[in-house]
Amino acid sequence: LTFFNLPKPNFFSLCNLIFKYFQGHDTSASALTFILYNIAKHPEIQQRMYDEIVEVVGPDYTELTLHTLNELRFLDLVIKESLRMFPPVPMIARHATERTEIEGSVIPVGTIVGVDIFEMHRDSDYFEDAERFNPDRFEAVREAGKSNP
Length: 149
What we know:
The chain has about 150 residues and is mainly alpha-helical. It has one domain (about 1-145): CATH 1.10.630.10. It has 6 helices and 4 strands; from the N terminus they run ααααββββαα. The strands form 2 sheets. The chain has a two-stranded antiparallel ribbon. A two-stranded antiparallel sheet has the order 2-3. The longest helix is centred in the N-terminal third of the chain and has 31 residues, at about 10-40. Its cofactor is heme.
């Protein structure tokens, strides 16, 4: 830091910087790990992905462009399904900023409200056969022109 003539950071600034680094790194690493896990666990999915890549990119893999990436539709479905089953951020918490009533239950101001994304993504009310890795479930969403189920 002295090379740039910047003041020496205090302990809290340094901790915050380190936390931000790992916060972004951990979620990306987790997402990629589970995508690879799901591909490895399902050889039929792996084969479909390979076939799509060869068809879209070509057998010699000469050039990969943004247009080419957008054509990899099944790859997109695999990523979405993997993120559904193993969200990199499985739970979030928020502070209620105003008194809210939901189905007769009151949430007072200042209450910490937790949202369990992991369980929501495995709820059979929203996802048929929710425990099964099925990238094709997102094809209907794509065809309907929606971004989320």
